[in-house]
Amino acid sequence: MQAFCSVTCGLSHSRAASETCSRRDLLRVGMVLVAGSGLGLLAPGSDNAKAASNSLEFLELRALDDSKKESRLPEFRKLADGVKVQDIAEGEGPSVEDGSRVAVHYVIRRSNGYFVDASYGFDRFDTFSFTSGSGDVIKGFDIGTKGMKPGGRRRFLVSPDQGYKTGTSKTSPGPIPPDWGNRRALSAHASEPLLFEVQVVKIR
User: Fold this and answer.
1) Quick one: 15 exposed, middle or buried, by C-beta within 10 A (0-12, 13-18, 19+)?
2) Tens place of pLDDT for every residue, the chain, 204 residues?
3) How many Cβ atoms from other residues are within 10 Å of residue 132's Cβ?
4) What DSSP element (H or E) covers 47?
5) Pair 106, 197: CB distance under 8 Å
6) 3-state secondary structure at position 22
């Protein structure tokens, strides 16, 4: 799998380094994810997805379902808190705000594109649920999901200082993989910028 372009410059603790990362580099991250749909990225729950779910190659390429190829993607935009987001689909209905109980599907990747964890697969087909603004999840995930609507899809880049700096144990702010192997993988890369892709399933 061809490595993603480096996006770490935009998430560096150095302000000067951050300013040198072009918007084009951030756009390429999303474009490579979409291009991967031609490499066997399958909808969770489909027969083909189940058959491929134990393949290491499939796991490294896993992404949320792209029912339509996105020929043109919006650029990443920087939120006030520094998290960079790319909206893929707006969704409909109420928006995520503090106090919202939210159910999502997610994929976590390293900044080079390699798969770390997902909320489905591995015999897991449940959504991940959290209460926005409660401390249930890492700061970057909480910020990145604010304003999303049911059916909405978004990608966002989370720097280490807004990520898993308190650890990746089962009691740490999520999302945390329930299985040991993926927790270990997440822990190994917790000091790196991480790329999340999230789809909101329900808000209540």
Assistant:
1) exposed
2) 444 444 444 444 444 444 433 444 454 454 444 444 333 333 444 444 343 333 333 444 445 555 455 556 788 999 878 899 999 999 999 999 999 999 999 999 998 889 999 998 766 667 999 999 999 999 999 999 999 999 999 999 999 999 999 999 999 999 999 889 999 999 999 999 999 999 999 999
3) 21
4) helix 47-52
5) yes
6) coil
Residue 107 token pair: 């994929």
All domains of the chain in start order, with CATH: 8-203 (3.10.50.40)
Which of 70, 68, 49 is closest to 59 using CA atoms? 49
49 pairs with which residues across the strands?
Answer: none
User: Cα–Cα distance between 190 and 42 in angstroms, integer?
Assistant: 27
Report the distance separating Cα 88 and Cα 190, nearest Å. Answer: 25
